[in-house]
Amino acid sequence: MAKRYERIDGRIRTFIEEQPVFFTATAPLTDDGHVNLSPKGRAGTLVVIDDLTLAYLDFGGSGAETIAHLRENGRITLMWCAFTGTPKVLRVHGRGEPVFRDDPRWGAYIHLFADADGPGARAIVVIHAERVSDACGFAVPFMDYREERTQHAEHLGRKSDEEFAAYCEQKDHVGVSLDGLPALPLPLPARAD
User: Fold this and answer.
1) Gap between the Cα atoms of 137 and 2, Å rounded
2) In this predicted model, what pLDDT tens digit does every residue of 181-192 receive, in sequence order?
3) What is residue 30's DSSP assignment?
4) Which are the contacts of 17, defined by CB distance < 8 A and separation ≥ 6?
5) Is 168 helix (H, G, I), strand (E, B) or coil?
6) May I ask the CATH class of domain 3-170?
7) Which residues contact 90 (CB under 8 A, 6 or more apart)?
8) Based on the number of CB atoms within 10 Å of its own CB, is 122 exposed (0-12), middle (13-18) or buried (19 or more)?
9) Which of 3, 25, 29, 49 has the most C-beta neighbours closer than 10 Å?
């Protein structure tokens, strides 16, 4: 039976913090725009800031559809699935905003990701929850978590900040989304911390 929650606290917060993967979904306002669904991982890159606010560290490596959609309209849904234990699917619907590396707020947020911060951090996505709800998750399969993949951190770890900025400028759909929306500011701003 689905249930709605007033806030992210107690066992809801614990559930979020225990999951090794979550998904983000965003879309542009146009009827023919591309809906985006992204898996997110890497331990320590998601934090629950308070009862209605979450944030995750956005790294380079692919396009910037989520950032573009948030810049246009702010709509975002985060989803977690229980692949072990009691079945559950949890969703947080809300308004999100990217905090870029040159934003004065960068320094206030980046310390929350001390263990996960590193080369390739290009934005912090802050989500203000408007609806928190779960569903049974009875159809979600059991899957065993083995370990973190290290390739992403290792690949970006070999780049200087200047090399990472050049890497971002060479990639398709980083400065502009698939639908032509402004995405990551290029040239990539220097970090404000």
Assistant:
1) 10
2) 999 999 999 987
3) S
4) 46, 48
5) helix
6) mainly beta
7) 12, 15, 16, 79, 80, 132, 133, 134
8) buried
9) 25
DSSP conformation letters of 64-129: -HHHHHHHHT-EEEEEEE-SSSS--EEEEEEEEEEEETTSTTHHHHHGGGTTT--TTEEEEEEEEE
pLDDT at 78 over 70: yes
Q: Which of 130, 119, 121 is nearest to 159 (CA)?
A: 119
Task: For the chain, give the percent of residues with pLDDT over 70.
Answer: 99
Written as six digits, the tokens of 65 are 């559809």
Give the C-alpha separation, 128 to 93, whole Å: 8
- Does an H or E element contain 163, and which? helix 161-170
